[in-house]
Design brief:
about 230 residues; Rossmann fold
Length: about 230
């Protein structure tokens, strides 16, 4: 069996006296996707930050590619793509210049071709030489997706990736997720509700009071129909 891309053991995170995550046990294999749902402040973004090596757990451990997330070096960070509430784009650079920078940072082979390909994939070829500061939020989100995926990462961490996108943008993001899973990447996506991604079977989890629970099929339907409150009595 393939080694897990992500594995956590007793993972917890506390800010001050407030525990945000508690005793998280989670495992994700290559080619598998997981959606983590929960309300504002539930700890979804915190979990992704720990998996990306941007935040250290207060207790327990997160292993990414078998390495403690607190010790991820450049070799492993290149294998992680992340979309967050921050675009990590430079507003005074054009779309093409942003991708040139990140392609150089990640050591992408045949960068000019890959940049043109990704600009086309996210529907921004006509805006390639416009500065990002003039972009709408939806255009920024599309470019952020290209930034995160241009190096074909084996772990995608997507923090509410469908926010700020119109219907076409959401369909595009779904296709990108499906393509990443098909080539063997692992995907963790957060959302307020169950994301609808055609042709992708996602494991579904909910964070409630800092603990993360797998959802059964009946509970999935409760969430899909907006009855999240029925799950809060755990």
């Amino acid at each position: 069996m393939a080694a897990p891309v992500v594995e956590t053991h007793g993972l917890g995170k506390t800010f001050g006296l407030h525990p945000v995550l508690r005793e998280i046990e989670f495992r994700l294999l290559p080619g598998r996707g997981a959606a983590v749902i929960g309300g504002n402040g539930a700890g979804k973004s915190t979990l992704l930050s720990i998996l990306a090596g941007l935040s250290a757990p207060s207790e327990g451990q997160a292993l990414v590619f078998g390495i403690d997330s607190r010790r991820l070096g450049p070799r492993y960070r290149r294998r992680i793509g992340m979309i967050s509430h921050r675009s990590y784009l430079y507003p005074n650079l054009t779309a093409r210049e942003n991708l040139e920078f990140y392609a150089s940072l990640y050591g992408v082979a045949d960068a000019p071709t890959q940049i043109d390909t990704w600009l086309a994939r996210v529907g921004l070829e006509a805006s390639a030489d416009e500065r990002v500061r003039a972009f709408s939020r939806g255009m920024e989100q599309r470019l952020a997706a290209a930034r995160a995926m241009i190096a074909d990462p084996m772990l995608l961490l997507l923090d509410e990736p469908f926010s700020s996108l119109d219907t076409d943008g959401q369909a595009l993001m779904s296709r990108l997720v499906v393509a990443a899973l098909a080539r063997g990447a692992a995907v963790v996506a957060t959302a307020h509700a169950v994301p609808e991604i055609e042709n992708a079977e996602l494991d579904l989890y909910e964070i409630v009071r800092g603990r993360m629970f797998p959802l059964k099929e009946k509970e999935r339907e409760e969430v899909r129909h907006g009855r999240l409150r029925t799950l809060l009595g755990r």
